[in-house]
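Subject: Sanity check before I submit

Could someone independently write out the structure tokens for this chain? I want to compare against mine line by line before I put it in a report. The sequence has 83 residues.
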Amino acid sequence: MTSVTLTIRLPRSIVEKLEKEASRAGTNLEGYVLELLLRDVDDPLEKAREYVEVVRDLLEQAREELSRGDVRQAAEKTWGPQL
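---
Independent answer below. Compare away.
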């Protein structure tokens, strides 16, 4: 599987609502949005594959941040998404 980075611009009010719901669910924004996107995926194996792909992408991003010396951003990437 190949990974693609997608940036979506949302109104601040929507992001704040999503962050609030993520907090209630005990996760972070990325994990919450991912869960919303995969909610209708019926095949548990396919859902697991999607999660693994996201985590691998975050790990690669963390490595890139470390190579730039940004330990904080690297650490944040390893924390999310909290599924």
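---
OP: Matches mine. For the report I'm noting this point. Residues 12-79 form one domain.
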